[in-house]
Amino acid sequence: DAKTTQPPSMDCAEGRAANLPCNHSTISGNEYVYWYRQIHSQGPQYIIHGLKNNETNEMASLIITEDRKSSTLILPHATLRDTAVYYCIVRAREGGSNYKLTFGKGTLLTVNP
Amino acid sequence: GAVVSQHPSWVICKSGTSVKIECRSLDFQATTMFWYRQFPKQSLMLMATSNEGSKATYEQGVEKDKFLINHASLTLSTLTVTSAHPEDSSFYICSARGRDSSSYNSPLHFGNGTRLTVT
């Protein structure tokens, strides 16, 4: 399975953009990059995922480099409620329709007032 | 959006007793459910994968006789921690994948977790 590397922590000022990097240099050609976040004492929340094109939804934008070896999650206007651990995950492949998400240590993003 | 509900959200039990945690998909049929465990300040660790109507597949190092998983319907999976001990105290989280998620890149939906404390 492709592994991911993220900085353990980052700080961001409220109202500014938060850019969270992720390295996944061993990603396979048909593996997707997923981003989830976990607010303290809650279950993970899906944010966004992508294969090779940049993606945007109501929560965030995902920028994937052309060689797909790294990506950046962008929260355009961070709020205090965005303080959470952000996980970058490359989807493990299994036979059939089963698959599993393997979580690394993630990045603790702290949004400061 | 897809909602996964866990119950209870927290439970305290005495050592040696068994505890059952429920995971329900509220607005979709979950063909596959995953159970995770998370210790304080650590990441989520996958315990097992369950498919509706079949036996669960456990990750290496997870005792199947201690963590009983039942996925008898398309909307409910249960995790029973048998003969719980203090070291089983943890945050247990389920996730579910819907029947209509035909492509393997569909995101998983997670419950809000169950905090188990064994005294």
Short description:
The complex is a heterodimer of chains A (113) and B (119). Chain A is mainly beta.
Description:
- The complex is a heterodimer of chains A (113) and B (119).
- With 113 residues, chain A is mainly beta.
- Helix content of chain A is 0%, strand content 46%.
- The termini of chain A are far apart.
- With 119 residues, chain B is mainly β.
- Chain B is 0% helix and 52% strand.
- Chain B is built from no helices and eleven strands.
- In chain B, the strands form two sheets. In chain B, strands 2, 4, 5, 6, 9, 10 and 11 form a seven-stranded mixed sheet that branches. A four-stranded antiparallel sheet of chain B has the order 1-3-8-7, with no helix packed on it.
- In chain B, a hairpin with a 6-residue loop joins strand 4 and strand 5.
- The termini of chain B are far apart.
- The interface between A and B is medium-sized, with 25 and 26 residues.
* Global outline of chain A: globular
Count of β-strands of chain A = 11
Count of β-strands of chain B: 11
| Secondary structural class of chain B | mainly beta
Number of helices of chain B: 0
Average pLDDT level of chain A: 91
Shape of chain B: globular
Q: Roughly how much helix do the residues of chain B carry, as a percent range?
A: under 10%
Main sheet makeup of chain B: 7 strands, mixed
As a whole number of angstroms, the C-alpha radius of gyration of chain A is 14 Å
For the largest interface in this structure, which chains are involved and how many residues does each contribute? A-B, 25 and 26 residues
Order of helices and strands of chain B: EEEEEEEEEEE
Termini Cα gap of chain A: 38 Å
Q: How would you spell out the order of helices and strands of chain A? A: EEEEEEEEEEE
Query: Low-confidence parts of chain A lasting 5 or more residues at pLDDT below 50?
Result: none
**Averaged pLDDT of chain B, please?**
90
Overview features:
heterodimer, A: 113 residues, five-stranded mixed sheet, four-stranded antiparallel sheet, 11 strands, B: 119 residues, mainly beta, seven-stranded mixed sheet, 0% helix
